Amino acid sequence: MIHGPNLGLLGRREPETYGRRSLEEINAALEEVAAELGAELEILQTNHEGEILDWIETMGNRVDGFLVNPAALTHTSVALRDGLLAVDRPFVEVHLSNPKAREPFRHHSYLADVAHGVVFGFGSESYLLGLRGLCAHLHG
Ligand code: DQA
């Protein structure tokens, strides 16, 4: 699970857009679903794009897939797209909000067309749906 920039502030950050659940609460809910599905989760949150790229490179041959909320990097990062493609693992892109219903600069994702799936607009539930979808794809 990769949480991109500013997601460490969830719960306090623009709660009308992103909800009141903290990152810790979302991670705990993800761990519960992972346990239910018999999956193991490794979780990263960082504000640094390069750290995400290093992590993908390191984890690429240790994990079966990635769940990613790239946050603002969704709309800016060719490097993140290339990094995920380089390790050749399926990934699911998730967002709390519905970026298509927001400012025009959020309408384009550099990842969506190479993602296995995308889940957005369901608040923290997007993560849980995304994890279920990824596991169903990997083991279904
Ligand atoms: C976000 C949507 C992005 O546009 C934004 O930059 C974020 C959060 C979401 O989860 O709704 O930081 O990825």
Q: What CATH architecture would you give?
A: 3-Layer(aba) Sandwich
Helix content: 25-40%
Give the strand content.
5-15%
| Biggest β-sheet strands, sense, barrel | 5 strands, parallel
Unreliable stretches: none
Bound molecules: 1,3,4-trihydroxy-5-OXO-cyclohexanecarboxylic acid
* Broad shape: globular
Strand order of the largest sheet: 2-1-3-4-5
**Could you give me the name of the CATH homologous superfamily?**
Dehydroquinase, class II
How many domains? The number is 1
CATH topology: Rossmann fold
Based on secondary structure, the structural category is alpha/beta
How many β-strands, per DSSP? 5
Cα gyration radius (Å): 14 Å
Number of helices: 5
| CATH domain class name | Alpha Beta
User: N- to C-terminal separation?
Assistant: 20 Å
Describe this structure in words.
By secondary structure, the protein is of the alpha/beta class. It has one domain: Rossmann fold (3-Layer(aba) Sandwich). It is 39% helix and 12% strand. It has helices at residues 15-18, 23-37, 49-59, 78-87, 125-139; strands at 2-3, 44-45, 66-69, 91-95, 117-120. The chain has a five-stranded parallel sheet with strand order 2-1-3-4-5, with helices on one face. Strand 3, helix 4 and strand 4 form a beta-alpha-beta unit. Helix 2 packs parallel to helix 5 and helix 3 (49-59) packs parallel to helix 4. It is globular. Bound molecules: 1,3,4-trihydroxy-5-OXO-cyclohexanecarboxylic acid (DQA).
